[in-house]
Amino acid sequence: KALCGNVHSFNYSNKAFFEGVWNSTTIKARGLFCDMDTEKVVARSFDKFFAVDERPETQFGVLKNTLKFPVAAYRKENGFLGICAYREGEENNLFVASKSTNEGDFAIMFRSILNHIMPAEKQYVFAQTLRSMNCSAVFEVIDPFNDPHMVKYDKSNIILLALIRNDYEYHPYSFWMVQEVAKIYNLDCKRLVKVIDNWEEFVEFYKSALDEKHIEGYVFEDNSGYMLKLKTNWYKYWKRMRSVLQALIKGNKTYSAIMQRYRITKDDEPLFTFMIQCAEEAKMNGLD
């Protein structure tokens, strides 16, 4: 996708996402911005990484033989991805983008929260830091007013997740460096919850984490830099129920089709009935 100047964004397609067409190229196309004149990376995010049991290589039983301990467990916040990097001529010399573009609602939300948290003169200095390190700053952007998610937040915020070198290959700075930069610029930093020393500890942590409430989950990073994620049962359930409500409001499928599509069980039926009522009221009031 062509953006400002000759900057293009590269992002995997819906086909790659829904059909699992992942390879060494598609996993990089997740928040990757390149100057097509110089063929250099302007800004980038993480390579795509997967949940436990989502891919053959992330099957729980396989991980016992592939994880390199110790493994760091970071809390996974529930927002959207924000990326910024140095680029001369941008506002405060900061190129600010969401996962696939520096335009549109998500980039605007990110810029607005960044402006609230970091004054313009400090943004110039931050941009120079990113320039000298030749890296992008990757954030979880929390905006509970314009972009509410499953997890409840009381205020908007940006949380520094990583500093990643502007290169086609994935080369992150250390967590220590991320903490230091966050401290210098008074930014919230991702939270290290536990360092897991062996497989038995990982199994114990994983089983306990699945049952946690009011949290999206965790991101794991092993000693070799390999990353994967866990989403709690609570989060997955309520995200599925949100999709049910959206389908009911859209109204282009029968109730039985929705029940089958979203695996509505007998235990879910009272909530499903309530959602039908909510959807009917929403449609009557012109809401979507």
Structure report:
The protein is an alpha+beta fold and 288 residues long. Helix content is 36%, strand content 24%. The chain has helices at residues 14-19, 60-66, 104-117, 120-133, 175-184, 199-210, 233-250, 255-261, 269-284; strands at 7-11, 30-35, 40-44, 50-51, 71-76, 80-86, 94-97, 135-142, 157-165, 188-189, 192-196, 217-221, 227-231. Helix 5 (175-184) links the parallel strand 9 and strand 10. Helix 7 packs across helix 9 (269-284). The longest helix is centred in the last third of the chain and has 18 residues, at 233-250. The mean pLDDT is 91.
Radius of gyration: 21 Å
Strand content: 15-25%
Low-confidence stretches: none
Count of individual helical segments: 9
Helix-strand string = EHEEEHEEEHHEEHEEHEEHHH
Overall strand count: 13
How would you state the average pLDDT, rounded? 91
First and last CA, distance: 29 Å
Strand order of the largest sheet: 4-13-12-5-11
Overall shape: it is globular
Decide which structural class fits the backbone: alpha+beta
Main sheet summary: 5 strands, mixed
**Helix content bin:** 25-40%
